[in-house]
C-alpha cells in the first residue's frame, strides 16, 4: 500500500492511472469523524495509491480532486481536465464523441 | 445494495454522515461504469453506437450500502450537492496546525499560521 506524501503527486498519478485504464480504476474515500481522519485511495487493481490526512485544508483539495474524477468518469478519460474551472468548458466539447471504448 | 436515484442518494448519504459522528466510518467509492455487461458493450461497439458511460457512486457505513449512477448531464448538479455535504460534515479535521505536522509538507501556506 503506497502512501503518497505529496498531494500534487497523488493527483498526478491518480489521473494517469485512470487514463491508462478507466474501466478498472476506482477512487475510494474513507472518512472517520471520531478520529478526524480522511484516507483516499485510487487503484486499478494492479497498482494502488493512497493518501491520508487529518487536515481540513486537504479536504478542500480533495473536493477539487472529486471534481476531476467526476468529470473524467462521466465524460470519458479524454475529457479535458484543467483542474479548476476549466472543467466547465468541456461542455463545449460534444458529449458523445470520444466516449467510445478505447481501442 | 440499494440503487437509488440521485436525490434520495444524497439524503441517505447525509444521514449516514450524521449517524457516524460519534463512532463509525463512511466510505464513498467512485467508479466509471457503463452499467451494461461486456457482451452488450461489445455489441454496441461493433454496431457503431457510442457506449454511454456513467459514474457509479457507492457509499457505505459498514452496515448499509447505497449507490447511485450519475451521467454526464447530472454530474455537475451531483458534484455541487456532494461537495456541500462533504464540507458540512468533515468538520473533525484539524485546521492549520503548527509546523510539527510533517504531513503538511504539501501545504505552503503553513508559515502564515497564527501561533504567536
TrEMBL record, chain A:
It is found in: Cytoplasm. It comes from the Eukaryota. Its main location: cytoplasm. Keywords: Cytoplasm, Ribonucleoprotein, RNA-binding, Signal recognition particle. Residues 5-66 form the SRP9 domain. The keyword RNA-binding applies. Residues 78-103 are annotated as: Disordered. Belongs to the SRP9 family. Component of the signal recognition particle (SRP) complex, a ribonucleoprotein complex that mediates the cotranslational targeting of secretory and membrane proteins to the endoplasmic reticulum (ER). SRP9 together with SRP14 and the Alu portion of the SRP RNA, constitutes the elongation arrest domain of SRP. The complex of SRP9 and SRP14 is required for SRP RNA binding. This is Signal recognition particle 9 kDa protein.
From TrEMBL, chain B:
It holds the Pfam family SRP14. The keyword Transmembrane does not apply. It comes from the Eukaryota. Keywords: Cytoplasm, Ribonucleoprotein, RNA-binding, Signal recognition particle. InterPro entries: Signal_recog_particle_SRP14 (IPR003210), Signal_recog_particle_SRP9/14 (IPR009018). Residues 92-116 are annotated as: Disordered. The keyword Cytoplasm applies. It is found in: Cytoplasm. SUPFAM superfamilies: Signal recognition particle alu RNA binding heterodimer, SRP9/14. Residues 103-116 have a biased composition (Basic and acidic residues). Residues 92-102 have a biased composition (Basic residues). Heterodimer with SRP9; binds RNA as heterodimer. Component of a signal recognition particle (SRP) complex that consists of a 7SL RNA molecule of 300 nucleotides and six protein subunits: SRP72, SRP68, SRP54, SRP19, SRP14 and SRP9. Belongs to the SRP14 family. This is Signal recognition particle 14 kDa protein. It comes from Hevea brasiliensis. The lineage of its organism: Eukaryota, Viridiplantae, Streptophyta, Embryophyta, Tracheophyta.
Amino acid at each position: 500500500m503506497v502512501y503518497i506524501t505529496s498531494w500534487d503527486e497523488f493527483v498526478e498519478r491518480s489521473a494517469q492511472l485512470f487514463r491508462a485504464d478507466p474501466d478498472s480504476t476506482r477512487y475510494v474515500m474513507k472518512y472517520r469523524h471520531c478520529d478526524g481522519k480522511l484516507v483516499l485511495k485510487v487503484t486499478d487493481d494492479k497498482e494502488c495509491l493512497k493518501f491520508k490526512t487529518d487536515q481540513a485544508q486537504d479536504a478542500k483539495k480533495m473536493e477539487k480532486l472529486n471534481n476531476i474524477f467526476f468529470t473524467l468518469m462521466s465524460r470519458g478519460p479524454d475529457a479535458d481536465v484543467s483542474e479548476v474551472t476549466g472543467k466547465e468548458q468541456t461542455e463545449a466539447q460534444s458529449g458523445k464523441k470520444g466516449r467510445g471504448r478505447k481501442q | 445494495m440499494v440503487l437509488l436515484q440521485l436525490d434520495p442518494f444524497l439524503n441517505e448519504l447525509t444521514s449516514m454522515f450524521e449517524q457516524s459522528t460519534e463512532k463509525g466510518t463512511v466510505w464513498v467509492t467512485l467508479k466509471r461504469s457503463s452499467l451494461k455487461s461486456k457482451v452488450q458493450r461489445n455489441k454496441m461497439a461493433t454496431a457503431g453506437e457510442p457506449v454511454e458511460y456513467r459514474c457509479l457512486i457507492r457509499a457505505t457505513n459498514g452496515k448499509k450500502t447505497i449507490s447511485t449512477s450519475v451521467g454526464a448531464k447530472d454530474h455537475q448538479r451531483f458534484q455541487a450537492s456532494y461537495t456541500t455535504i462533504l464540507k458540512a460534515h468533515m468538520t473533525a479535521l484539524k485546521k492549520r496546525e503548527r509546523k510539527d505536522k510533517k504531513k503538511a509538507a504539501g501545504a505552503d501556506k503553513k508559515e502564515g499560521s497564527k501561533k504567536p
